[in-house]
Structures are given as structure tokens and as C-alpha cells.
Amino acid sequence: MKFSPGEANPRHEDDRLLTGHGRYSDDVNLPGQAHAAIVRSPYAHAAINGIDGEAALDMPGVLAVLTGADWVADGLGEVANPGIVMKTPLLRPDGVPFVNPGRRPLPTDRVRYVGEPVAMVVAETAAAAALAAEMVELDLDPLPAATATATARDAEAPLVWEDFPRNEVFVYRAGDADATAKALSAAPRVVTDRLVINRIHANPMEPRSCTGDYDAGRDHYTIYGGVQRSFSFRDMLAREVFRVTPDQVDVVPGDVGGSFGLKGSMNMEMPLVGWASKRLGRPVKWTATRTEMLTGDDHARDVIIEATLAYDDDGRFLGFRAEATSNIGAFAGFFGLAPAILNLGSMAGPYTIPAMHVEAVGVWTHTGPVAPYRGAGRPEAAYVIERMVDQAARDLHMDPVEIRRRNLIPAEALPYRTALTFTYDCGEFEAVLDKAIAAAGYAGFAARRAEAEARGRLRGIGVAMCIETAGSAGYETTELKFAEDGTVRVLAGTTNHGQGHSTLFAQYVSQRLGYDGAEISVVESDTRVIADGVGTGGSRTAAFASAAVEDAIAKAVEKGRGIAANLLQVGPEDLSFAEGVYTVSGAEQHVTFQEVVRAAFSPDMLPAGTEAGFHVFGRSELSGPSFPNGCHVCEVEIDPETGAVEVISHVLVDDVGFEINPMIVKGQLHGGVLQGAGQILMEDMVYDEDGQILTGSFMDYAMPRISDYCSIEAGSHPVPTATNPTGVKGAGESGTVGSMPALANAIDNALAQRGAKLPDMPMTPSRIWTALRDAARGQDAA
Prior knowledge:
This protein is of the alpha+beta class. The protein has three domains: 31-143 and 203-296, Aldehyde Oxidoreductase, domain 3 (Alpha-Beta Complex); 425-470 and 626-781, Aldehyde oxidase/xanthine dehydrogenase, molybdopterin binding domain (Aldehyde Oxidoreductase, domain 4), CATH 3.30.365; 473-622, 2-Layer Sandwich (Aldehyde Oxidoreductase, domain 4), CATH 3.30.365. The chain contains 19 helices and 28 strands. It has a seven-stranded mixed β-sheet, with helices on both faces. Helix 10 (378-396) packs parallel to helix 18 and helix 15 (541-568) packs across helix 16. The longest helix is centred in the last third of the chain and has 28 residues, at 541-568. GO terms for molecular function: iron ion binding; oxidoreductase activity. Pfam families: Ald_Xan_dh_C (PF01315), MoCoBD_1 (PF02738), MoCoBD_2 (PF20256). Keywords: Molybdenum, Oxidoreductase, Plasmid. Residues 1-23 are annotated as: Disordered.
């Protein structure tokens, strides 16, 4: 099959994956491998007095019981997990630069959250290891724990780290505090609200799994396991943990069955299996159970935001202020601080707000660490501004669409620097709004609401504009390695975890070089065969990878030009090239690129002095992000007798720039919408006051099913960006960024008919029913 950028080609990788030829983390099985099980802390906070593994060691098939004391004795380092890279140091409230406390994979003195690894059992089989892990005796002294985001900074709250008073990790400010204070104090109208964005889990289809294989002859570690950034992980494992050089460590992601940010974090099992393999002289494999995922993985979100929006009597925005408290958990994970800081600029939305200020404070708690999760701060920011805009509209008795229209940044004002960190390069926000409300039949909503009311239902409609930053300054690499039979292998520094990267590369290579899809294979982020790369996260791959593969293709065309000229006995300047064919200008003579590749392996067919073989390196370096944006319109019905929410329709129009594959873009948007809706309607990681997780399995943690949502209509309004050569804007997070506020606004719009207040997320039937009953009692009392 031929592929081409801009076409809705079927996914290049699906035949391989659907026929069982994928190689996911748990598919790795090496000769002689042993299996590991993790012993985890049953307490949120406790002192470690001792760990007794004798009973476990006596069980059949058990090879080792390893503890933090063994780790220290072997002279290994800490998992640095540097968090985020800031242009200036991230400061604590006292002005001292933040320094990460660091973390050993197994603690020696204290446990700090339920589910923290405490020991590792290695046995001949996974079942034997799991059984033996239950026999490890932990002598732990429980200590008071701070588990709630809202109270972690209280003076009496137990400290997670003694060196951090009031559990404050950092304070970060953006915008102009003085100008904002003046705008708010002078404004005719303000609305203020406290918005709670609850803790959730990414729950990828593939649980985390990793296999360590140490080669004593080479003093070399190979770690197999699905990760988003294998090069960063390799360098950290080498320099910080195993204390060797990076060429002594390889990280092999293979196929990754979903991540959504979770597998961009360095979890402790990865260094543990490498260490255990060296100790035992054989490969060691570990695969999480679903319960281990929910309790032992990094979590996401968990933010409380106090926000104020100021506006005049005509609905013109004057100022905005927010104070955010972000729960970091017990440790700062790899990029774990990023969601709290890097995307605060999205609170500006696509609006002309003249004065803005945000203060973000991170807090330690005795809960699991957090990691980026689809959007990594963007959905949270969009939720805040869009909820406040709806409340301002209600205060003014103004249509929610009209108040947005009055404040949108006009296309002619772009590029536009907001009052809160970002400079938007391009976009047509009003056109996107118009397309979305037309597709949603917004003008006919009143009739639909009246019909629902006649059936005893509360019908609501919610609108949300959204804008986010995708990618950032940086680089990416792609190598095209051609074989003697003319086929090509694409070696890329990106990491696919479901986005269809193989299709992206096939579309460019197929169209530019004239290849059939079957002649193209793709390998990503395998440090054994790829020299350098960054990886995938923050919707960066479409921009970076397309630019890198275009660079490689251009170099391949030029490299092949001299060989083609020699074959055709003309000068290189006499050749034109298009869609995989070199053609002699003004003549019918031509040769295909694949014929040139095959000739490159025959020295007698090459120009004098040309080295046999054919491979090229491509690299992209981009100086800044793009800003995908969109509008979501969601419609719901609520049964007031049960509080159940039925989502009737969800329409969105997104501007993701040039769409390399519109079918994949729509798939990304659909999946993102459901993940955002899951948080609004049902998903919730719940801790009790002692730090025990009450939602530790799918019996208690609710995941959205296809039956929980309506069919999603995804439209587009592409405005290509000039920030990268192909004009693309990231599409990976847009669905989640817009769906959270749109769905919440729809529910709020429905509840407002009865004077009920929108509950905190998740907006479960129980909470909605309670809100309706509270409103009824209040009206009766009045």
C-alpha cells in the first residue's frame, strides 16, 4: 500500500500488532530468566526496624530476597528523578533552590506511602515469587501521615521530609501580581471559586513490566520495558544508579501498550531488575498486577485551585488570579513536578485577559508520587478558566458563547503574547467556535431542553474553548537505513505508545521515496541500534519526527542523485526527482530510488570514490512550541431521581495544524475525550485518613466504558503553524484538554435549572443527587 502525508491511510503497524506479532514488555522471555515480585509497604508512613526474608528464602524455587540494605552494600546510587529542567532554579518558599531529596529503589529507614517497594523476591517462577513475597516479614513502626492535599501545609501536619517545613516543595509564580491585584480591586464584577481536580491513574491497557539482563563479560546492562524516553532513562541508570558509562546500559522499549505519560516516569522496578540480574547472573523479569498498578504506580492530577475572574458589565475580562496547591506525593518523580508548573499558561485560554497572575505551590504528602498524565497540566488549566468563564456568564445572564466571543483573541492580533507566559503564533479562534456551535446545533438547544423537561429530565449544554502548548524547543533524530534488496528501516528517537508513529514515517517515506508500506519497517528508541534521541511526550512527535524524517529523506535524495547520474550517464544537475523517481530533464530516461539503493551495494555500479551502502541521518531542531486549540460542545441529560448523567452529544472542532493522518488525529481526539470524561464522571484515586488506598482495584476504581459515552463528532479547522517545517500542531492531548471543562459545564448547566451547585469531580450520580437534594432543601427553607 502507498502512503502519503495528509491522507487518512490505515495504520501501518496494525497488521503486525493484530496478528500477534507485537513484542510488548511481558512478551520478553530470555533464556534462563528468573521472576521477581515486589513486597510493598502496607503503611503510608512508618519507620523500618527490620526486614526478615528467611521464611521466604526457605520456600521452593526462591533465589533471593533483596532489601535496601543490600542495595547500599552493593554501592549503588539513587534514582535521581530530577523532575523538570527550568531555565532558572525552582525555588522553595524561603527562596532556597529546590533540591530533590532523591530516592533509592528500596528504602532503608522509612516508608512514605502505601505501595512503596520495600523488598524484592526473586524465584524460578512468577507464582513462586509472588507466594514467597507474602512470607517476607516487615517490622515497621507506623507514624502519623499527611495524606490530604488541602491540609498538607497545616502547621500540625506530619512532615514527609524533615528538611521541608510545612511540606512545601516549591512556590512558582507567573504573571504580574501587582497589575492583577489592581485589576481585580477596580473591576465592577468578580467571580471566585475553589476548584478541586481529583487524583486519578493513567491505567494503560498494558501494565508495567521490565526485564533486566546483565552481561558480566561486557559489564553491560540491558533493560527491556515500555518507556517513553529510553535515552534519558539509560543515562540516568548508567550515571546515577549503576555508576557506569552510558555505553554500558541499553534500554529497549519494544511495543508499548499505552502510557499517557505514566511510562515517562522512572519507576523503581526498572533499576531493581537490572541489579538483581547482576547479582544472580541471569535475566530477571517483573510484571505488575493490575492492583500493583493502581497502588504502586505514579498517579496524576490532584490539585486544588482558588481562582478569581474579573470582568465588566459587558462581559469583558479584566483580570484573573489563581492559587494552586499541587500534591506531588512522597517523591518527586521524573517530570513529576512538570504538570504543576509548565502549563500554567494555558489558564489564559484563547482570551484577551489584560492582567493575570498564578501562584503554584507543590506539597509533599504520604501518597504515591504523581506523573504527567494526558495533558500534564493543560486540562487542569483549561478546566479552571472555562469554569470561571461560565460562572461569569451566569452572573451576567449572558449566553456562554457570547461572553467567549467578546473576549477571544482576534486572528489579526496574532502572534499574541498573553499575560501569562505564552505567545500564541497562529490560530482562528472565532472560526473554530463558530464551526463547533453550528455542528452541535447550539441554536436549537432550547427546544431540546424543553422536550427533555417534559420527560422529567434536566438537559444541559456546555461549551469550552481550549488552547495548549505542544512540544517545546529541542531536537529529534531519524536514521534511514537501506538494505541491499531496496527496503528501508526507519530508526527513530521517538517512542510509540499507541499514537501510530509507524504510519507517520511510512507516509513520508512512501510518498517522497516511492516505497510501498510493506517495504518500510520502523524501530523506535531502542538504544542498542539508535545513537541518539529524545522520546515522546507533550505531543511533540508529529512536529519533531516529521521534520527529522523530512531532513533524512532530503539527504537520501541528494546521496542517491550522484548514483542515479552515474547509472544514467548524465550529470547530477540534469536530474529531477519526484515521488521516488530520478528523471533526466527533457528526456524519458529515469531510474527509481529503489534501483539506486540496490546499486549502492554494488561497487562496480557506483561513481569512483563512493562508499558502498546507503544510510542517512536526519535531525530536527525546533525553537519553540505550537499551540493546538479547539472548541468542545457537550450536551447531557440528568435524571433528577437518581443523579445519573447521560451524555447525549459531544462535538468538537480542533485546530492541530496540518493533519498528517486525519484518521489518526480523530482517533487521538476520541480517546482523549473519553479520558477527560472519565475523570469528570467516575475516576477517582481515594485515600482514607491513614493513607490506605480505597480504590485499589477495578472493583472500586471506575473506568469509562464505551457505553458510558455518546458517539463523538470530531471536526477540524487546520491553521498550519510556522514553528516547524510541516506545519503540524500536536493532537495527543487536545481531546482531554477540551472535554473536561465542556462536560463539566454541561452538567452545571443542567443542575442550574434546579439551583444546584456543581459537585467536585468525579461528578458521580451520588454527588449529583446530593447536590439536587441540597438545593431543594435550601429552596424549601427559603
